[in-house]
Structures are given as C-alpha cells and as structure tokens.
Design goal:
Elements (H helix, E strand, L loop, with lengths): L1 H24 L9 E7 L3 E2 L6 E8 L5 E5 L14 E8 L7 E3 L13 E5 L4 E7 L4 E2 L6 E14 L4 E6 L3 E5 L1
Parallel strand pairs: 2-12
Antiparallel strand pairs: 1-3, 3-8, 4-7, 4-10, 5-10, 6-9, 10-11, 10-12
C-alpha cells in the first residue's frame, strides 16, 4: 500500500512539472478588462547613442471614459511624461536578466502648477511618447537586441473610484 501511494505522488509531481513547462510557453490569456496598452519603438532599429523613441498607446474598450494624468504626453527635458509609465522588464540579447537600475528622476519646475488630466472616451486612445534612454540600465543602452515590458499606471476608471495599472505585451527593438 505504501509503495502505491509513493508512485501516485511521484506521478502527480511529474504532471505538475510538465504543465508548468507548457504554461510558461503559452501565450497570455485574453484580458478581462478591455483597457489595453501597446508600446512600440519607432524606428525598430536605432543607431547607438541616439534617442530610443517609444510610443505608448492606451486604448479604452470600457463602456465609459477613463482618464490619465501626467505632466506631458511628449518628451520634455525634466521627464514629466514618465510620471505614470514604467519600463518593468528590460532584457538584452536574449538574456533574461533584468537590466533596469533606475527610472527617470522627475524635477518639476516651480512654474508648473500640476498634472493635466487626459480623458479617453469609449473606443478612443491616447498616445504618450518618451525616450527609453531616460531609464538607467545595467551596462547602459549599448548595441544589442532588446525585449521590454512596460506599464501605464494610475489610469482612473469609474469616475475616479478605481485606478488601473496596465502592462503591455513585450516589445522589441535593436540598437546598432
């Protein structure tokens, strides 16, 4: 009786390990909340030492409006456009080791009274542009192929009763 029980446990563990391996390779399940973020690097191949332009697009598929507050939706010298966006995972040349060291430091000029609220109506989108080089990474932004996962935080939903943080699917670019 004892040997049979051990055989069943060993079999169950083998099945669990096998399922975890398959799950890691499976595509992400569809989102239950119809607010999406897509990020692209334009262009996809960037010369070394130049800006790495990123376009974050927030799409609202909810039946009501959502809102996004920020100092800017385009790159500015003091990094105000990065206030509610994050580069969560940054990998170089296929090595799955996080390179992120620091997000941009935001130094708000005294003449700025506060953030602006951008309404995103049902079925509409908002685009936020920035430069990936504003984030500090281990080894710097040197030549290589990069895979990045990003997130937009503090999207206001349901008349400010709820806030969402929405991550994008990984995107890629190359520095030559």
């Amino acid at each position: 009786m004892r040997l049979q029980t051990l055989g069943i446990v060993a079999c169950a563990v083998a099945v669990v390990i096998d399922l975890r391996g398959d799950a890691a390779d499976a595509p992400s399940p569809p989102s239950l909340i119809p607010v999406t973020v897509t990020v692209v690097a334009r262009p996809g191949i960037v010369p070394g030492g130049e800006a790495i332009p990123l376009e974050f697009t927030v799409r609202n598929g909810l039946p009501g409006e959502i809102a996004y507050s920020t100092y800017s939706v385009t790159p500015i010298e003091w990094h105000g456009e990065t206030v509610n966006i994050s580069l969560v995972d940054i990998y170089r040349d296929g090595v799955k080791r996080g390179l992120l060291q620091a997000r941009p430091k935001i130094e708000i000029p005294t003449v700025i009274s506060g953030m602006s609220r951008h309404r995103i109506l049902q079925g509409e989108s908002l685009t936020i542009r920035t430069d990936a080089r504003k984030w500090t990474i281990d080894g710097g932004w040197k030549p290589g192929k990069y895979e990045v996962t990003a997130r937009v935080d503090r999207l206001s939903v349901d008349h400010d009763r709820c806030q969402l943080s929405v991550s994008c699917e990984p995107f890629e670019f190359e520095i030559k």
